[in-house]
Amino acid sequence: MKSSYKILITEKLVLKKFRGTISIVDMKVILRETKQLNETYPNFNIIIDYRGTDFLFGRNEFVQLMQSYKKSTFSTLLKIFITDTPKQFVIYNFFKDNYSFKNTQIFHTLEAACATNGLPIKKVKKFLI
């Protein structure tokens, strides 16, 4: 798994991108790192881009992992997930529904995510491509 992030201070936005294969152990690391970013930038929204990744785990493994987290663990600000496979969509839709998050959105394109939320596509796209 390759990952990187960028902070857009003016826009109060955290951009994270992942590429390659992601195991359930990697997902634990991702959740831990995301929590740390949320603590460091508590008033920032986040876009997490999973395009070009392959989840090496299924819904049941993800469910077991998520049972160890409380809703309060996650930021109450906007979380946008960019996915490009049905498996990613199903897993993050479960995440959204399981915790009844009203602040979580899932998109298949970066353009749709930015347009829907009034985010600067050029700045976001420059990093997430």
Question: Can you tell me about this structure?
Answer:
The protein is an alpha/beta fold and 129 residues long. 42% of the residues lie in helices and 26% in strands. It contains five helices and six strands, in the order E-E-H-E-E-H-E-H-E-H-H. It has helices at 24-40, 59-66, 86-98, 110-117, 121-128; strands at 2-8, 13-22, 45-49, 53-55, 79-82, 104-107. Strands 1, 2, 3, 4, 5 and 6 form a six-stranded mixed beta sheet that branches. Helix 2 packs parallel to helix 3 and helix 4 (110-117) runs antiparallel to helix 5 (121-128). The longest helix has 17 residues, at 24-40. The protein starts with a strand and ends with a helix. The mean pLDDT is 93.
Most strands sheet: 6 strands, mixed
Helix content: 40-55%
CATH topology value: Transcription Regulator spoIIAA
Provide the structure class: alpha/beta
The sequence of SSEs as H and E is EEHEEHEHEHH
Give the terminus-to-terminus CA distance.
Answer: 16 Å
| Gyration radius over CA | 14 Å
Number of strands: 6
> Per the principal axes of the C-alpha atoms, what is the gross shape?
globular
Give the CATH architecture. 2-Layer Sandwich
Features:
single chain; 129 residues; alpha/beta; Transcription Regulator spoIIAA; 6-stranded mixed beta sheet; 42% helix; globular
